[in-house]
Amino acid sequence: MRIEWRGWRAGESPAPQKKEPQPAPGGAGDSPAQGRPKGRPTNVSRIGRGGRVFGGATGAWPGWVCGVAAAVLSVGLFAQSAKRAASVTAGQQPMEEAGFQAIFDGSSLKGWDCDPDFWRVEGGMMVGETRPGHMPKQNTFCIWRGGKPADFDLKLQYRLTGAGGNSGVQYRSIERPDVARWVMQGYQADIDADENYTGQVYEERGRGFLADRGNFAYVGDGQKPAVVGSLGADAELKKFIRSGGWNDYEVIARGNTLIQLINGHVMSVLIDDDKANRRMDGLIGIQLHVTRAGMKIEARNIRIKNF
Q1: Residue of 263, 210, 228 lying closest to 41 (CA atoms)
Q2: CATH number where 169 lies
Q3: In sequence order, what are the beta bridge partners of 287?
Q4: Is residue 20 part of a domain?
Q5: Best exposed site among 56, 94, 157, 177 by fewest CB in 10 Å?
Q6: Helix (H) or strand (E) holding 190
Q7: The pTM of the whole model exceeds 0.90
């Protein structure tokens, strides 16, 4: 994987930039259905002339961020999927999968908690489905009750079908019973049928877009997300996603660093230093989004390894 550095050096001040309009507080999280706003997010800093990042964070990058970035990019904190054989370099082998625990048995929803009107098990798969005229009042989730993992490697296979379908894998999340039963808030490994957001780090009912697909992003304490480096062009990474087919999703959470992969390719990376808003552990769940038409999200082979 070729990685392009896009951050400025520690101690170097960013050049000024015309301020872009920002979404209302809470972003997409203010709407009852938690829908994504149209177009690309505006709360993530853009890359300006000379590859420098403008906006989002104030001042220069903390020196340690550059050090962590170098470690992530060069030492290989990306614990890649064993299915990445086609893209590994000569002399290196894919990482073997070991130490994982299955958290979905393929025959029942034992250990999971969700609305039976919308969730079922069929053909060895967890299935969430809506139809026109049969929609939840807000996004609803199938929640794993087996713990609140902190540092972990989570893997699963998913398939999303239905025009305008929208889903995601929640992690390090909390419940929002004040909104409704089976509602979650927290980090989400995003999925959508149009593949505009699939692979990005999103925060349901929170800060919204945190790391777009193709971005290595950083959130400073009390700041907005800003881009540290590029993991590849968004359009190129999109080609690795099997739209309407089965995909392997992987989420690695270690400390305040989150890494998301699809089909063995790193889609987004986030370092979250926003102490008031980040979460260091929490619930896991799968989202069934409110849409105009019906949709179906299927998941199987869900497993986790705790660190």
Answers
A1: 210
A2: 2.60.120.560
A3: 141
A4: no
A5: 177
A6: strand 184-192
A7: no
